[in-house]
Structure formats: C-alpha cells, structure tokens
Amino acid sequence: MDIKEAVIQGIRTAMDKAVAAGKLPEGDYPDIVLEIPPQKEFGDFATNIAMQSARTAHCAPRHIAESIVEELKAPWLDKAEVAGAGFINIFLDSRVFYQVLQHILTVQEAYGTCAERPEDTVQVEFVSANPTGPLHVGHGRGAAYGSSLVNLLRMAGYKVEAEYYINDAGKQMDNLAASVNARYLELFGRKAEIPENGYHGQDIIDTAKAIAAQDGDRYLQVSEAERLAIFKDRAYEEKLKALQKDLARFHVQYDHWFSERTLHPQGIRQACDALRERGKVYEKDGALWLQSTAYGDDKDRVVIRENGEPTYLAADIAYHKNKYDRHFKTMINIWGADHHGYVARVRAAMAALGYDTKRLEVLLLQMVSLFRDGKPVKMSKRTGQAITLNELIEEVGTDAARYFFIMRSLDTQLDFDLDLAMSHSNENPVYYIQYAHARIYSIYRQAEEAGIALPQRWEAVQWDLLQEEAELALIKKMAAFPEEIQRAAAARAPHRIAHFVYETAGLFHAFYNHCRIIQEDRELAIARLGLVTAVRFTIANSLAVLGISAPQQM
C-alpha cells in the first residue's frame, strides 16, 4: 500500500470536486507535493498546494486550502487542517498504519521491493582497477557504493547488470610483467631493475617466488621476450583471481567481467572507422585525433599515436561503443575523483559517434581518509605501502567497512574513523543497527520462555492495541521504506538507505525502552511481537541493499 500516493490522489480528487462545485475555478493546477512535517503536531503529511495554486485560481491560498479540505474525504483520513497562509496538514487514521504492518508481515523479505520495470535496463560499471596488485581503500569505497547501488536499483525494479572492466591490455600489463621478471631474476642472483612505472609491492615478490617455487630456474633458459610473455599471463591470472576473491569477501558480485584485450585490435579499429565515417577524426603529425572540442572538451584528443598504437582513450571509446551497442537504457560509470577531467572526452567521443550522452551517467567518488586516534593513517604498518582493502576488512570487518563507505554521499570526502568502526557501542552506527536486529531475536527467545508463540498467521492480531506514540512512530517510519527505495534509486543514493535503517533502528531502540513487549496481556504481547517482526524484515531488507549481514546474535 503506497500511503503517500493515496494521499496525493485523495487531495487531487478533492480539488476536482471543489472545481466541480464552483468553489475553485477550472485551470491547470500544479502537481501535489507532500512533505513530512518536522513536528508531529502538524500531522503525518503537509502540502503547500494551495499556495502553489494561487496564480491559477486567482484567489487567496487559504481559501483554496479551505475549499480542498471541505471536499477531502477518504478512509485513510483522520482529519485535515488549514494552517498559516494556506498549508494543509493531513492526519492519517491509525488503521492505515495497521494495514502497513499487516502488509510487511505478509510479504516479509519482499517488503520494499518495487514492481519490475523490465524496460529500464541499467548497466553499472564500478571498481575496474588494473589487475596489477591488491585493491586499496579507495577501491573499497567504489566497491561498496557500486554494489549497493546495484542492489538498490534491483529492489526498485530496474533490470541491472553489474560489470567490471578489466584493464588487461596496454603498458601497465607490460610493466607488471617486467616487475615480476626483475624479482624473479633477483631470486637467482641476477641483477635486474624494475621499470620506472613498475610495481614495487610485496605481492610482486610473492608472485615471483611462487613462479620459482613451481618451475625453478627454467625461465632463465628462455629469451627475455618469451619470459616476459609468460610472466605477464601468469601474473595477470594470479592478480585477477586475487582481486575477484577480495571482492567476493567484500560482498561484491559481478554479472560480467569485460576484458579490454577483447577490444584489441578489432574493436578499436571498428570504433575508429565509425568515427572516420562520421568525419569526427582527422590526421595530424602522423596521429589520429578526435574532434572532441566540437563536443565541449577543452582540446582535441589523440586516439591513435603516430607509431600506430592506440591510446587509453581509443580503448575507452571502443568499450563505451560496445556498451551502447548492447542497448542498455542507462549506463552508469563509477569513477574516482581523479578521473574528473576524463569525463568530457568520453562524452565527446560518444556524441561524435551519434549516441545520446544522456544515457551515460558518470558518478565520481571522492577520496577516503583513514583516521586512528584522531590522526590520519596513510600507510600499512605491515608493508609500509598504501593500506589494502583486505587489511581494512581484517581490522574492522566487512560489514563495518561497507557501512562506513556507504553512509556518506559519494560526492563528499569521507573521513573513516577506524576506532569507531571497530567499537562495540551505540556510537558505532553499524553496530547500533545490527544490535537492533539481534535484539529482536533475543525478544523471540524471551517470548518462547514465557510460553508466547508467534502466530502462524498475523491477520487475527488486534493491531489497534498498538496506540503508544513510540509504536506508531515506528510503524510510520517503516511505511516510508518502499518510497525511500524508489527515491534513493532515482537519486543513485544508497547512503539514503544507510540513514533510513539507522533511523529505524533508533526508533526501535526507543520503542524497546518504552514499551514492555513480553507481558501478561497476551494479545498486546502478540501485537508487539508482530511489530518487532515487521521491524526485523525492514532492517534486514535495508541491510541487504547495503550488502551488510543481519545477525541473530551479537
């Protein structure tokens, strides 16, 4: 039951009746917008439709509001009041909220799930780090945000595909092979240097040791070119498997892993040919240039270098062309803030190919700063290198890491308090939420000890026994969950669900402290058990969106 939509339709019907009765003139009235008042004495909903309609109706907003209220009749309505210059405050009949409670207990794990929208196909591409080493904390924010967005969009009814773009071609893979090669040669007493843009992490040494342990010095007998080719494939396979394992540990799953190698050379050639056919590229100084300034970029960009090698942009053009050719209605790229300058050139390329750039959304994640004891933490104690996602998980756990990454809007810099994330206190938001869920299972155990069994069917429960303010506030909060899912999905804002579930947990803890659940009045006890069961589903469904577990014990 969508209460808000029912109220909007009810007000619209009342306006139509007021027009038909001659109380208001005919006209093109604006859409009705409902807000939740900041204070409960102003009702469950409020609207300024009367003030918005004054120009159309050519009369005072208060007269418009009074005319609407006179005609407003609905089974969900307790009363409607005109306030101030023309606000309309709506007070709902408590039976409406009991229906919401019954609905939650009927659909259970499906509560909050919206009707399917199969025509709204969405591809979300996120993380897409080079398979040259372990994921770091910055990748963790992208992983948590991207996977939560995928969950959120699916719950909102969209048909979603999560994709990882594997940058497994180009210079960085050559540098990976050369770095492993240098470490391998060192193991056998040979002098070798890691290239200028090579990789110096402990994981490269471990890779070289693993190759040596398995195959000994056999690769000393082959040419350097052959050795580099072998090491490139071996290192790539190892790094990619490790990356996939780390992401799975972080509750991140993909529908498709797209290899950049598959674009070389045919995909890139096809993209360049398409640009040539449209007259959007030109040759200069032996290179092929994209006319990106024609589409808002600050300068034209090289697509094919003078030596015939494609640039990174060429591969990205081919990749995004492939995306468009897969006919997604919307494509969402989640990139780091350091890619800000890259957005214009990719959009320019898609516009040059004749694609609708409104279908491509690029969301930029701001930086993450770790703090311990109030001081910034930049390097791993273990390796002296940047802190990896795995190290963060080992320290604070997957659930806490995901919540802290998600709880702020992606366009704000995130200060990650390690001490808070590790604490088992109500100050830790993820602990506070999970404790609410676990506390409900504790209540179940108390009910069992008291000989009170949960009913097999909830229809016969006397919900009208729930009259306490703490009870009704909790039900009203849960009633907003389906709409919050839709709004968060539309805004690409999973942090809204993080806030929603935190607020729901807060209202539950307040209810628990105010209302005795297990008591002699069995009918009231069962009604309150039904209420906490609905809270359990709402919290668990919210946490599922965030990729966070809902424990039964803590």
From TrEMBL:
Under which EC number(s) is this enzyme classified?
6.1.1.19
Keywords, A to Z, come to:
Aminoacyl-tRNA synthetase, ATP-binding, Cytoplasm, Ligase, Nucleotide-binding, Protein biosynthesis
Identify one Pfam family in the record: tRNA-synt_1d
Q: Which InterPro entries match?
A: aa-tRNA-synth_I_CS, Arg-tRNA-ligase, Arg-tRNA-synth_N, Arg-tRNA-synth_N_sf, ArgRS_core, DALR_anticod-bd, Rossmann-like_a/b/a_fold, tRNAsynth_Ia_anticodon-bd
- Domain DALR anticodon binding per the UniProt entry, residue ranges: 433-554
Give the Arginyl tRNA synthetase N-terminal domain ranges. 1-92
Gene3D superfamilies in UniProt? Arginyl tRNA synthetase N-terminal domain, HUPs, Isoleucyl-tRNA Synthetase, Domain 1
Enzyme type, top EC level = ligase
Q: Which reaction does it catalyse?
A: tRNA(Arg) + L-arginine + ATP = L-arginyl-tRNA(Arg) + AMP + diphosphate
| Entry's Gene Ontology molecular function annotations | arginine-tRNA ligase activity
Intervals of motif 'HIGH' region: 129-139
Please state where this protein is localized: Cytoplasm
The organism's place on the tree of life at top rank: Bacteria
Protein family = Belongs to the class-I aminoacyl-tRNA synthetase family.
Q: How does it assemble?
A: Monomer.
* Name of the featured protein: Arginine--tRNA ligase
Q: Which organism is it from?
A: Megasphaera lornae
Primary gene name:
argS
